[in-house]
Write a structure and sequence with these properties.
The protein is mainly α. Helices cover 42% and strands 4% of the residues.
Length: 543
């Protein structure tokens, strides 16, 4: 109960609706109506400032508005790691389009994802303005250190939201202040270079001002930390070093990107704040949340209330668990989305225990009472995401495998955005880019040793990319890795995706359209948002 209450306290927004409207409103009245509370009047205590910052985290949680929009529908399903799944090809048609290169600017999954990030950005801009104005000594708790920490959290989150937008849509409008009227919401798309520059600036501010993980009180675990900012600086620099993003007009050189990435990775490692869990599977349990391997994760809590049809922000629980659980009522009664591919299954080495953690192949031996059902299979594939869909803490669930005590479809399991294993592999990649294969091998081997695998013979791109795919399988990273690498082992992304298509079932191949290089690496700006913008926006090529 203590854990649940802590997570609810951290992520329930109760003070004010901080919506970021695309249409806004005119300032028609020049006089304040009697009884009106000014926004400035809210920022009179540390508690209010903390509450404001807490609200900035909330849109990270959002997975549903008028359709489901979890980021893994892009990160897994667009890649060679997963098929959409569900009851049929028409079940969540927007995800089907993403899976099969049929996406248009009318895709509502992308629209909801786009809007959720801007809700977060709007909250961040408001917090930066008003908390920035608060005077030290507003109350006894509002010290310079507290103010710096709160602003550091918000800079981290704004960078995080913009990074999520950038890697899906490339350059987007980039407001850095509160938009107070519809006149303010008229701006062209920022360049990719300008967005990366701003993201780095926000993260560097966060890194300077945030506490270390160990310096937070237990009740504040889950908030952004210095280590999380450093891990993101490592990650963003790796993206900037990549062939695909360099082609988008970046001014920072590849060599400087790798050098900086390596330096930020050094900072995380030497801090001593993180280590690998001895048991890999522990990362995907309630008991393992915010633990020794956790660098940053999206917090969820199990609650008793439902919210069908309510839209953004009406639950503290995650939909990912029910979205990805088996459709069989004997083993979870979920909706069966995000099916791992045979291609991913075959990537794992013999004896690698991470395969069974990531992928569940349903049968009666593994799951007593399971009986194969025709609706479990999607385009010839019946494998399930075992990391988030099939829950691992029997003491914390009731009524069957993967069902929650308080609500059948609102799961409490946090989403692990950055694990220390991910940091080690990104660091190894930075070392390879900087010409230090010996150090890269050390950290690749460290990740492999945790699961009992032998050392690699040589550290190169192929070994690194294989390890990332297996270590991070079904965690939403794969598509974004493929884009920045533009394929695997020196092949172009189109060649890689064409080769993957050839490994799929005949049923699946029938639905997959031609991958178009120069188009399908990113997704279209939603048409609704282009129409709401009073300044004309260019669409991504090919859409």
């Amino acid at each position: 109960m203590k854990r649940i209450m802590r997570k609810i306290a951290l992520y329930t927004l109760s003070f004010i609706t901080l919506s970021f409207s695309m249409t806004g409103c005119k300032d028609y009245l020049t006089e304040i109506e009697p009884g009106t509370t000014l926004l400035e009047d809210f920022y009179t205590s540390t508690a209010a400032a903390v509450q404001n910052v807490t609200g900035c985290y909330v849109p990270l949680m959002w997975e549903y508005n008028n359709t489901y929009c979890s980021e893994w529908f892009i990160g897994d399903v667009a890649s060679d790691d997963a098929l959409k799944g569900g009851g049929s090809t028409t079940d969540m048609a927007d995800a089907y389009d993403i899976e099969n290169w049929r996406t248009t600017d009318q895709n509502t999954l992308l629209l909801n994802f786009y809007r959720a990030q801007y809700q977060g950005i709007g909250r961040c801009n408001l917090a930066l303005e008003y908390i920035g104005k608060m005077e030290i000594g507003t109350d006894a708790e509002f010290t310079q250190s507290m103010k710096n920490r709160l602003l550091g959290e918000v800079h981290f989150l704004r960078a995080y939201y913009y990074f999520r937008l950038l890697r899906v849509f490339a350059g987007v409008p980039m407001p850095l202040k509160v938009l107070r009227s519809s006149d303010d919401w008229g701006m062209s798309r920022a360049s990719v270079d300008a967005m990366f520059t701003q993201i780095l600036a926000d993260l560097e501010f966060a890194q300077t001002n945030l506490p270390k993980k160990s310096e937070y009180a237990e009740a504040d675990l889950g908030r952004a930390t210095q280590g999380a900012a450093e891990a993101m600086l490592l990650k963003v620099n790796l993206y900037m070093a990549s062939p695909y993003w360099q082609k988008q007009g970046l001014t920072k050189s590849v060599a400087d990107c790798y050098k900086d990435a390596k330096a930020w990775g050094d900072s995380v490692i030497v801090s001593g704040e993180y280590s690998l869990c001895p048991n890999y599977e522990d990362n995907f349990t309630i008991a393992g949340e915010n633990g020794r391997e956790s660098v940053f994760e999206i917090q969820y809590a199990e609650v008793a209330w439902g919210d069908y049809g309510e839209g953004f922000g009406f639950t503290a629980g995650s939909f990912t668990q029910i979205l990805t659980r088996s459709r069989n009522s004997e083993v979870g009664g979920g909706w069966g989305f995000n099916h791992p591919t045979q291609n991913l299954y075959d990537e794992f080495e013999a004896g690698d225990p991470r395969r069974e953690t990531a992928i569940l192949v349903p049968n009666s031996d593994l799951l007593p009472g399971y009986q194969a059902q025709s609706d479990e299979t999607y385009l010839g594939n019946n494998m399930l995401n075992n990391k988030y869909g099939m829950y691992r803490d029997p003491a914390d669930v009731g009524g069957g495998y993967g069902k929650w005590k308080l609500h059948a479809s609102r799961g409490p399991l946090n989403n692990k955005q950055i694990r220390y294993a991910d940091v080690l592999l990104m660091y190894a990649e930075a070392c390879l880019g900087a010409g230090d294969a010996g150090t890269a091998k050390t950290y690749i081997d460290q990740v492999r040793a945790r699961v009992g695998l032998p050392e690699i013979s040589v550290a190169d791109d192929a070994a690194l990319r294989h390890e990332r795919r297996c270590e991070l399988a079904m965690e939403g990273h794969r598509w974004f890795d493929l884009v920045r690498w533009e394929g695997v082992n020196g092949t172009g992304l189109k060649a890689h995706m064409d080769a993957y298509k050839a490994t799929e079932t005949a049923d699946a191949q029938h639905h997959i359209q031609e991958f178009v290089a120069g188009k399908h690496e990113i997704f279209p700006i939603p048409q609704e948002e282009m129409q709401l913008n009073s300044t004309p926006m260019t669409q991504n090529p090919g859409y």
